[in-house]
Amino acid sequence: MKAAARLVAVLAAAFAAATVSAQPTQPPPIASVRSPSSPVPTPPYVNAETRALYAAHCGKDATAPNIPGVPEGARIGFAADPGQPARLIVCIEPFGAGLPLPITTIDSALAFMAYKPFAPYWPAAEARWGNDMGVLRDEVRRTPIADALAGYPYAELMSKRSAVAQATAGVALVAGDYDQAQTVLQAELDRLAALNVAMKGRADVGFEMSLLIGRLGNIAGKRDGPSAGADLIADLMARYQVAAEYRPNVDMNHAAMLAEAGRTAEALVIMRPMARGFGLDPNDPERYEISGSMREVGWIMACALTREIGPEAAAPYAALVTSSEARPVDPYLNWTKSTVDIRLRMHKCLDDPKGFVAAMQTNEPPTLSLAWLEFQEHGPRTLIGHKNLAGLAAEAAATGITSEYRQLPDSYAPALRAWLPPRSSE
Question: pTM for the complete prediction?
């Protein structure tokens, strides 16, 4: 079963690290318990801890912002208790319970500090995290490895040692420690390659190696632009042997960054045979659809074909993205990327700020999604994919979609860039 799961995960895994719409676990439905017309049993989430949170943080200072996903009028408190992550507290009035939603990532904290309805809590949050996110950055660096492993969706599909390396690098990347992440990932790649040589190519490490190469390429793409990321992947694939069944994982990353860099003819050289080989040609009525991967093929092909041939040739592939369900379910994975994330990346690749903003309007991400940070003028830093797209902030302001988000003060500029220096060019 593990081997089968690895094969199904190959295409979906290529884009795992770039998700936009991750959010805290939503509380139980509130509307059904706010004004019961008949006696309602006490729900299991009402306990001594949630009652204490309600008593401490759901007083007169708790606000009632109109937040998508939270019933109208529900009040929200904020907790910045020592020794705990900062938390939003959803106040469940009928039962006197406060449900905590931790804010543990720097990007979620930045979105919190930009979201105007949370303005009453900004002073407490700034005192908790620092006015440059420096305090939270240090907390992220101290993330227990067990927690990091629990948050890595492919840990169960690989050896413990490789999973620990990926989780360790993930923590470093969230904290903006790119050199450390690269060192950890490169060391693990070298170890697996040596093991494979020692076992004369019989070591079952292709899945792990493909993810390592893809992630190293993605780091280069974030630091130096998509062209640099694509070139690094090509170099690593020339130096390290990855089993053929796992190459699509790396090839998808490679083609994606080539397309974002405007090297669309090169991207099509990779993507056309892949689309045919996996039965992903949208013109083939008998194609076999691998859950979620159709959308990844769709946006890369749509971007590349638009530039090389024209919108008509690209339309069937763009439709694979725009017509997909919000988040496909994969029987082998506990997580797949949301379709809006993929659609936003496609519009960035197409140099289409109007399409990007329209996709946000149609499929509005959660309040604390890092997608909202794309409209911050400090930077440049790309959060969705690897391409910077000029004109996003102005287009969003013109439509009013960002009316509830402010531009963050200068002190947050390094954190908005994830402590990367501004790019000199793409």
Answer: 0.85
